[in-house]
Write a structure and sequence with these properties.
It is a single chain. The protein is of the alpha+beta class. The chain has one domain: SH3 type barrels (Roll). Helix content is 13%, strand content 29%. The strands form two sheets. It has a five-stranded antiparallel sheet, covered by helices on one side. A three-stranded antiparallel sheet has the order 3-4-5, with helices on one face. A hairpin with a 2-residue loop joins strand 4 and strand 5.
Length: 158
């Protein structure tokens, strides 16, 4: 019997912590052929999604995938994210959450020969201090230097 991954359980736990604490849960997702998201919002092969109660409809976080409906520019869309493609889940207000390494995406697993799946490796995101600090906006496709101030974002450290 293969070992069950802890990743979907951790995603649900962080989501619940965010909502219980009054924070807005966000997902960072690596987009591939197995992911159904609005492609016009994908930057550098990744997308950041607000998965709060107010931003989604019918959110279901299974052990294999996360699926829900959300509005983009006023148009309702059905989204499907394999758990394997989730890079991070975090609270938008303070950046606290958990990041995951995505070595193999769901579409890469489907196209490769059936092999023994390895458990995802996890790394904790360090908690930010309660004192006000400068925040850096999410990187975009251009190579402009980051601006000071703005919304807090998740910083992935490799």
């Amino acid at each position: 019997m293969s070992e069950i991954s802890t990743k979907p359980y951790l995603l649900r736990a962080i989501y619940e912590w965010c909502t219980d604490s009054g924070y807005t849960p966000y997902l960072a997702v690596k987009v591939d052929a197995a992911t159904t998201v609005p492609m016009e919002y994908v930057r550098k092969g990744e997308i950041i999604l607000n998965i709060s109660y107010g931003a989604t409809s019918g959110l279901k976080m299974d052990n294999d995938a996360i699926h829900f409906r959300a509005r983009f520019n006023g148009v309702s869309r059905e989204l499907y994210i394999p758990v394997q493609n989730v890079l991070a889940i975090y609270a938008n207000e303070n950046g606290q959450g958990m990041a995951f390494e995505v070595n193999t995406t769901a579409s890469e697993m489907a196209s490769s020969a059936p092999e023994e799946a390895s458990a995802p490796s996890l790394s904790a995101v360090p908690a930010k201090q309660e004192t006000p600090a400068e925040t850096v906006p999410a990187p975009d496709d251009n190579d402009e230097p980051p601006k000071k101030g703005g919304r807090p974002t998740l910083t992935r450290i490799k």
